[in-house]
Amino acid sequence: MFRRVLGKALGLLGYTIQYGCIAHCAFEYIGEFVVCSGPSMEPTIVNHDIVFSERMSRHLCKIQKGDVVIVKSPFDPHMNICKRVIGLEGDKICTSGPLDLLKTHTYVPMGHVWLEGDNHRNSTDSRNYGPIPYALIRGRVCLKLWPLHSFGTLSESPTKRIIKAQSDSDSD
């Protein structure tokens, strides 16, 4: 009887470890659920919204301008931040505010991205800490899950429309 109970317990432990490994690999390489906090991405993502962040784009180098990404904080490696990609390596970024008389620009170095929050007045982003290494990107937000009334893909922000307008005018 003891052997049978021990055998069933070990079998259960084996299944638990297997499913744990599968779950770990899924969250590490496919995607994860993220609870966003803070006002920096309002109105696109509001405090305590739950989003799904897929990781395949990061591994395949498919991050594009306008994507919302989850990134390791450059100040605290235990914290993640959620921001929008404004510039990729080699892009020229205007770093001055809309009311500044003298416009200042910077170039995004190789292997880096420029990130900004949609709520420019209440966001600590690349305007404060500079370009972010591509290696700090954890994933691309592709779906808003909670609250249910806003379930679906992310809406286009005013920033994304500005990015489109700038790239359209660059091609003229």
Automatic annotation (TrEMBL):
Q: Which residues form the Peptidase S26 domain?
A: 19-96, 102-146
Q: What is its EC number?
A: 3.4.21.-
| Location relative to the cell | Mitochondrion inner membrane
Query: Superkingdom of this entry's organism?
Result: Eukaryota
* UniProt keyword list: Hydrolase, Membrane, Mitochondrion, Mitochondrion inner membrane, Protease
The record's InterPro entries line, in alphabetical order, gives: LexA/Signal_pep-like_sf, Mito_IMP1_subunit, Pept_S26A_signal_pept_1, Peptidase_S26
Which coarse location class applies to the principal site listed for this UniProt protein? mitochondrion
UniProt lists the family membership as follows: Belongs to the peptidase S26 family. IMP1 subfamily.
Q: Which NCBIfam families match?
A: sigpep_I_bact
Tell me the subunit arrangement.
Heterodimer of 2 subunits, IMMPL1 and IMMPL2.
What name has this protein been given in UniProt? Mitochondrial inner membrane protease subunit
What is the protein's species of origin?
Characodon lateralis
Q: What is the lineage of its organism?
A: Eukaryota, Metazoa, Chordata, Craniata, Vertebrata
Q: Which gene encodes it?
A: IMMP1L
